[in-house]
Amino acid sequence: MTATAPQPTGERRPVLQKRIKWIVTATIAYNLVEAVVAITAGTVASSAALIGFGLDSTIEVLSAAAVAWQFTRRDPERWEKGTLRVIAVAFFALAAYVTATSVLALVGQVDVQHSTVGIVLTALSVVIMPFLSLAERRAGRELGSATAVADSKQTLICTYLSAAVLIGLVVNSLFGWWWADPIAGLVIAAFAIREGIEAWRGDACATSVGMLLEDEHDDHDHDHHGHRL
């Protein structure tokens, strides 16, 4: 595999790897808190969008955990397709649930209550997620890690979802437009379907994993040649 960008030095590489691990850990921890708070607040306010947002955060955590588990295996490539399929099914299930609840809310004209907690949570996400995404993307690019760059894009998608839910909650609170919440829920469902299709096909993530594995094999080959010499 031919490198398209200069690789970091031996001293810099461990620093970048450690930085990415910390960023990913912080992202997972935040998503866990976000999921619990969003689902709870959404249930209290009868907000399909807020509940869907919380479920999406849960799947993002499970997705990261699945990939982390995959790379603890002796042969990560062997588990790649199965891991991606599990992630895809989870996203499809989320899309089906949020679509059903949003449509029922629209048909039944469910009265969505004001949720201060939901507004604060989504507003925080709009601020925090881009910062985490940018930090991971910069470190990933310098390190040459396609997986880290791809993961940073997933984090950025969370920002868009946060903004959609925030707009729905604020509009409902200010103008009493109850339909804004289920519409935001349908936006989340659309994003979930898109992510599910990409995971099922293996787009981006599969390519990234393959690139890392190829780099790893190249490193091992160089080490073996060095020992032989």
TrEMBL record:
Q: Which residues form the Cation efflux protein transmembrane domain?
A: 25-197
How does the record classify its membrane topology? Multi-pass membrane protein
Pfam families registered for this protein in UniProt: Cation_efflux
Where is this protein chiefly located?
membrane
Q: Does the keyword Iron apply?
A: no
Q: Which SUPFAM superfamilies match?
A: Cation efflux protein transmembrane domain-like (SSF161111)
Could you tell me where this protein is found in the cell?
Cytoplasmic vesicle, Secretory vesicle, Synaptic vesicle membrane; Early endosome membrane
Write out the transmembrane intervals. Answer: 22-42, 48-71, 83-108, 114-135, 156-180
| Alphabetized InterPro entries for the sequence | Cation_efflux_TM, Cation_efflux_TMD_sf, Tmem163
Record's superkingdom? Bacteria
The alphabetical list of record keywords is:
Cytoplasmic vesicle, Endosome, Membrane, Synapse, Transmembrane, Transmembrane helix, Zinc
- Family listed: Belongs to the TMEM163 family.
Q: What is this protein called?
A: Cation transporter
Its lineage reads: Bacteria, Bacillati, Actinomycetota, Actinomycetes, Micrococcales
